Amino acid sequence: MILAGVLCAAGQEQSKLADTRVSSAGTDTASTSTLGPSKAVHEGTYSRYEGEKRYRANCGRCHMAPHKFPPRMMATIVRHMRVRATLTDEDMRYVLRYMTE
Amino acid sequence: MTVTVGRFLTPFGIFNERLYPIWVRNLQTDPLILPIGVGPSNASTGAMVRGGFRATSKFDINYAVYFSALSTMTLSNVTPLDSDRFAGVRAGIFIPNERLEMGGSFQHLLQDERSNSFGFHGGWQPPALPIEFRGEYQRSARGSGYWIEPAYRLNQVPFWQYAMRRTQLVARLQQYWVGALPSDVLPSVNTRQFEFGVNYYFRDGFRAVSSYGRQFSAAGNMNVWTVGLTYRFAFPLGHGDEN
Q1: C-alpha triplet B77, B9, B107: angle, nearest 5°
Q2: Residue A34 and residue A40: Cα distance in Å, rounded?
């Protein structure tokens, strides 16, 4: 029971952290201008949430998150890893966006 | 879909292609069954078609189909370039929400005894816990066996959290049975091995690793242990310009 309580508490803390990261993510100015502020923020938040989720599900199967690289380099890395880890195209796009923000 | 022509890591099972780099693997020793299906240099010389796609909203499918030609070229013992002549396929499904992956491999040797090899692999990371399970079973005319590897990251231990969340406990249980045909690279007798390891992550690409295990076989029991540091070089990328 104690162990379950500890795990549950830790799980909640992780969820809070994920929520904080999603909600604290900045707005995409390009999208904001075309979609309107609230929709753009919502889509940006969804994209980041999906990117993190797919990163954890796919990349986290084998290794931890690498440090950030510039977008151009990260695009090369993610393209390479897409082949190696047989990621879907959609997963690759979400992961790339998540890793370059 | 990706088409590869030339040299590539043989996609038989998951260890050779996905878990082989020392900064990825949890235990530094190779599984006993690793040589099954991967060829003499763990790589193939030929062509491969591979890819992954979302089959439904619940799971993805990934595949790799390949052909390797016989190559006896060896530049040195350090960089062997030899390969066997074989054709094979690996397919798997991945359920992202459950972080569950499983699949199978099949390979037909197109030389010597022209035998078949097959294997199954699986991996599971329960989303609610920092634990992971991996395992493989492989069978060929030269031998068969399995390995199972659970790894637990101590993120949720309530004391010494700075150190604990960087610490990982690993174990691997494996067993190997000799096949009908002899092999130069597989164990010559039935073998069992258990290993237990502790890894400490200083940061994402740099960690200290240690393990101790015991191997039991008719050829004699022995200890298997490792101590080391692993570092993931990003050269020539480096940290680069953040802009």
Answers
A1: 110
A2: 8
Q: pTM (2 decimals)?
A: 0.79
Taking the CA of residue A41 and the nearest CA in chain B, the distance in Å comes to: 23
Distance from the first to the final alpha carbon of chain B: 31
Please report which residue ranges of B55-194 form alpha helices under DSSP H: 161-164
Decide if B86 contacts B68 (C-beta within 8 A): yes
Residue B166: what residue type? R
Nearest-angstrom CA–CA distance, B225 and B20? 18
The ipTM is 0.71
**CB–CB of B99 and A7 under 8 A?**
no
User: With b meaning 16 or more CB within 10 Å and e meaning fewer, what string describes A45-58?
Assistant: bebbbbbbbbbbbb
d(CA A28, CA A43): 9
Selecting from B63, B96, B241 the residue whose C-beta is nearest the C-beta of A57 gives B96
Give the residue ranges of DSSP H helices in A1-101: 2-24, 29-35, 37-58, 71-84, 89-99
Residue ranges for chain A with pLDDT beneath 50: 1-33
